[in-house]
Specification:
726 residues; alpha/beta; seven-stranded mixed beta sheet; three-stranded mixed beta sheet; 29 helices; 61% helix
Length: 726
């Protein structure tokens, strides 16, 4: 590397102090707060008046409190979308991406930068082909000399581990990238992803000025990466720049719904966020660049009091690291206008909920940090909003339950409404029903406002509507997406409520690998078991609502229908065939699909080639990675070379390893547990010896599994899919 990383120290002054002018920051945040209050106040007043006219009691007090919280969150989202809509036309001057001059854009990148990708039991073909695309794109910029790539594996599946090693070796040979792309497998997966990154920082962080963090499903163009480094160089007071990744490569209906909604509505929200956050934005854990010196010095994560799920090690590390970086005096920026940042999403509703389960527990842990010393007020707000993002579900459920109880009380008691003269309604020429409908219309108006603004936003730019497939497909997509998520939202409400209850009961979360693409189709048995309780609840609740008041049943119909239909909705939206049909009709199209960048085209082609690679025999598939490590001389040599050397092996361990090797050869991999397989793979001596034993043992003394493997190997040596093409 040509330049050493910068030294530790407090943040330098921003290259453009106007970006962080205190007066401007105060005015912007005051505007946001004022708009939220102006939207929320009248609605709360109307709801309070309705309860007063019906006879105020404890249930109505709870109902009003829940309504106030939920409506405030809706108003906050609508306010951000409204500001984001108007700021695009004005070209907000307070954007980190506007600090680069034409000379800066043309300057060579000399700052040593590590592109870091933590992986855990992901599909090696997708991971390494993604790295190939990013590396090639970065090389095409002419700036590759300042970048190194690190694949940091926490894979506990022994077969994934070996496939990663084989794919890595194939990749660096084909790209001539030896000494540029590194692979590391941790032996102990302490603290999951955040621990993986912390381990990288301890071992190699001092060698680099910046760290670009990617997820296993991330794709970034070389030009986007280079621009991020230039922005960090131009703004020495900045510690983190977070891009806004666009969702791509969705194949199921559910995935296509997500990426369409995110792509269409996301820009107005992102610009609204950037408007009031300025240099106190958030870090989302990936597709972001980090200044390593202050990150290493100030962003070490503390252990929380107590044990999991609320205590112990922090799961959702990104919000906390952003808060610690800001506390140390470094700015954190969101870059909503930066192009070339992409990620993928869960393919079905159940996998989406599983991912939320992990995020939910991590966000609830942040309750410990709301009163932590030295954090900026905006970072406390970020933490609180992260908690409320999931607490909103049980609050919404409670609101619906209390609504049902109030309706039952009115129906069973036969109480009459108070005269209009005794309420605020005397100032409005509205009946009780009309007032309630006006409140409902206002609520729905705020919910739909971001969608309307997003559609209007398309009219400002030539070709924007065409990039989404034309007006008919935009409007049709919005209507279908709205209907679909109206059914999905109550299902997620119950999922989140259940997850919070489990967390409160002390049930922690396991780290689950996210399924994507063609691996993401739901299993119908899992769907039925998962959603059966929600279906029963929806049917019973609907029957009770009809009995109490048919009007209540009509008002709650979308919610109850979503619960009652959760099984077919989950199955249909998770199907690849249905997704392909939707795609053929041109619905839920996005600009990245109608005019894909070269990097996404290249990735799709590479992944498709990997899918066409002949699969191993069915009886060998589950342990194909172990097969390669034991049977193939090259893979075995690479694996042994990557293992940590040890001076001596205790006699007891030697005896144990000898027994495991004997069992593996005589009875096959199915006779060993995953723990036993990993133990053998970690021991360099055992891996060398078992390779020799396998090839020198008479076939009659080997398990039938190994005899089949040898016959298969002699016909077609096991080659990682990554090695099939250049």
């Amino acid at each position: 590397m040509s330049n050493p990383p910068e030294t530790n120290g407090r943040a330098a002054a921003s290259a453009d102090p106007a970006l962080l002018d205190p007066g401007r920051i105060t005015r912007r945040r005051t505007l946001v707060a004022t708009l939220v209050l102006l939207l929320t106040g009248p609605a709360v007043l109307l709801m309070a008046d309705l309860h007063w006219r019906a006879g105020f009691d404890g249930w109505k007090g709870v109902h009003l409190a829940l309504f106030t919280i939920l409506f405030t969150l809706i108003a906050f989202g609508a306010t951000q979308a409204l500001i984001g809509f108007f700021m695009r036309g004005r070209h907000d001057p307070c954007r980190i991406t506007k600090t680069l001059s034409p000379e800066d854009e043309a300057a060579d990148v000399t700052a040593p930068t590590a592109v870091v990708m933590p992986i855990c039991n992901e599909d090696p073909a997708r991971v390494f082909e993604g790295v190939r695309v990013i590396y090639e794109s970065l090389r095409a910029t002419g700036q590759i000399a300042s970048f190194d790539f690190f694949l940091l594996s926490d894979s506990g599946n022994p077969n994934r581990w070996i496939e990663e090693e084989a794919s890595w070796q194939a990749l660096i040979r084909q790209l001539d990238a030896r000494g540029r792309i590194f692979y590391r497998k941790r032996r102990v997966n302490t603290n999951k992803k955040s621990g993986n990154l912390a381990d990288f920082c301890r071992r190699w962080g001092r060698r680099y000025r910046y760290m670009l963090v990617l997820d296993a499903d991330s794709i970034m163009t070389g030009s986007a990466i280079v621009k991020l480094v230039r922005l960090m160089e131009k703004n020495p007071g900045t510690g983190i720049i977070q891009t806004v990744p666009r969702l791509v490569n969705g194949e199921t209906v559910f995935a296509r719904l997500q990426q369409f909604a995110s792509r269409l509505y996301g820009p107005v929200f992102a610009r609204g966020l950037s408007y009031w956050q300025l240099g106190e934005a958030n870090y989302w854990g990936h597709n972001a660049i980090i200044r390593l010196a202050p990150f290493i010095e100030h962003c070490s994560l503390p252990d929380l009091p107590g044990s999991e799920p609320f205590g112990g090690r922090i799961l959702s590390h990104d919000y906390v690291e952003a808060a610690l970086m800001r506390r140390a005096g470094w700015a954190v920026w969101l870059a909503p206008s930066l192009e070339g940042s992409y990620e993928e999403c869960p393919a079905n509703l159940i996998d989406f909920a599983k991912r939320d389960r992990r995020w939910l527990q991590g966000n609830l842990q942040h309750a410990w940090l709301l009163a932590a010393k030295g954090l900026h007020a905006v970072n406390r707000l970020h933490l609180a909003l992260g908690i409320l993002a999931y607490l909103a579900s049980p609050l919404w459920l409670a609101f619906l339950v209390v609504t049902t109880i109030i309706a039952w009380q009115l129906s069973s008691t036969g109480l009459e409404l108070l005269p209009v003269d005794n309420s605020f309604a005397r100032y409005l020429p509205l009946s009780f029903t009309a007032q309630a409908l006006a409140l409902l219309a206002g609520t729905l108006g705020l919910l739909f406002l971001p969608k309307i603004l997003a559609i209007l936003d398309l009219t400002r730019w030539p070709g924007a509507v065409r990039a989404f497939g034309g007006w008919s497909r935009v409007v049709g997509g919005v209507l279908l997406e709205t209907a679909a998520f109206t059914l999905i939202a109550p299902v997620l409400m119950l999922f989140h409520t259940k997850f919070i209850a489990l967390t409160l009961l002390g049930r922690g979360v396991a780290w689950i690998t996210q399924r994507r693409g063609q691996d993401g189709e739901p299993d119908w048995r899992e769907v039925i078991l998962t959603h059966s309780g929600q279906t029963v609840l929806g049917l019973l609740w609907g029957g009770f609502a009809v009995w109490v008041n048919p009007g209540l049943a009509v008002w709650m119909a979308p919610i109850l229908a979503g619960l009652a239909l959760s099984i077919p909705v989950s199955l249909v939206t998770g199907q690849l065939v249905a997704g392909k049909r939707i795609q053929a009709l041109g619905l839920f199209a996005t600009p990245e699909e109608t005019s894909p960048p070269a990097e996404l085209v290249r990735l799709a082609d590479l992944v498709e080639r990997c899918r066409r690679h002949p699969a191993p025999l069915a009886e060998l598939a589950d342990d194909h990675g172990l097969l390669q490590a034991v049977l193939d001389p090259y893979v075995n040599a690479v694996h042994v070379a990557l293992l940590r050397e040890k001076d001596t092996t205790p006699r007891a361990s030697e005896t144990r390893f000898a027994g495991l090797r004997e069992t593996l050869l005589r009875k096959g991999p199915s006779a060993l547990t995953t723990k036993d397989k990993n133990a053998l793979l970690v021991d360099a001596d055992s891996m060398g010896e078992i390779h020799m034993e396998l090839w020198s043992t008479p076939p009659s003394e080997l398990a039938e599994w190994w005899r089949t493997a040898i016959r298969h190997y002699n016909v077609l040596a096991p080659v990682p899919p990554t090695a099939l093409h250049r």
